[in-house]
Amino acid sequence: MDTHLTYAETLSREPRKWLMTMAIVLICLFLLAWSASAMQSNSTGGSGLSVAKGIVSGILHPTPSLLLTLGDDGVPYLLFETMAIAFLGTLVGAVLSLPFAFLGASNIVPKPVSIIIRLAVMAIRTIPAFVYGLMFIMVTGPGAFAGLLTMSTCSIGMLSKMFIESIEELDRGIIESLDAAGCNTFDKIRYGILPQLMPSFSSTLIYRFDMNLRDASVLGLVGAGGIGAPLMFAMNSYRWNDVGAILLGLIILVLLVEWVSSKLRTKLMRG
Q: What are the Cα distances from residue 26, in Å, to 15, 30, 91, 186, 191?
């Protein structure tokens, strides 16, 4: 009987919860609309909505010459430079991450050593990519090399963490059998660990390349090479057709890379 009353009380209170939820949603929508109406462009005096319309119009009517020019100021070259920064940054970061990964795995090295390495990896991951970009620009000057160093350093933090987790989930039976056969540490890594880790490592590298491609596009805003700087200059001068051409090329590149990487990840997971 008590259970029946409790259930009836729950049903009677349910409409009140829906009313409260709808009230919260309406309040949030009102605040968003009010905030959007207050946006102004300081340089032109126009509203934020007019700027958004300019961007959409630019994407629908991109500058053909910018899309078809093969020089260093054309979209194809800038996209190639951005993809090269992302690819080489992922590759260099992966090579540098392997020592961190094996030294940070508690099932490979003593616990104190793994704790120290994990703290170092954590420290690398705490600094945003923008900060790394500004730091390397101060050292090497603006350009693609600063972007490459930034992508490599950012990749170390994530890849090392993911690699460590993959190593700690290894099948201990294979390692113990190699240990019983008298294999040294290098042999255990070469014949017992790497064959198990290659599918997981490859999938992680593909995912990191996707992230680096997007980050490399943004890093151009601070002068670290890539397509970000021309995009910023075009937006600051309100050349919406040029903005549309750059964004259109970037969208096509990201979609193409996403399609290829998803196919590769699916093939790796299926063996």
A: 17, 6, 48, 63, 61
The answer, yes or no, to whether residue 12 has pLDDT greater than 60, is no
The burial of 28, by beta-carbon neighbours within 10 Å (0-12 exposed, 13-18 middle, 19 or more buried), is given as: exposed
Interaxial angle between packed helices 75-104 and 144-168, expressed in degrees from 0 to 180 and rounded to the nearest 10? 40
Distance CA 124, CA 34 (A): 40
Amino acid at 68: L
pLDDT tens digit string along 181-208? 777 777 777 777 777 788 788 888 888 8
Superfamily of domain 64-269 in CATH is: MetI-like (1.10.3720.10)
Report the C-alpha gap between 84 and 86 in whole angstroms. Answer: 5
Q: Are 129 and 116 in contact (CB under 8 A)?
A: no
Tokens of 155: 């990749």
Spell out the domain ranges in the chain.
64-269
Q: Of 113, 211, 215, whose CA–CA distance to 164 is shortest?
A: 113
3-state class (DSSP) for residue 65: helix
Please say if the pLDDT value at position 18 is more than 70: no
Structure tokens at 36: 């959007």
- Cα angle: 81, vertex 204, 250; to 5 degrees: 30
Angle CA 258–259–263, to nearest 5 = 115
pLDDT in tens, 79-110: 888 888 888 989 999 999 988 888 888 877 88
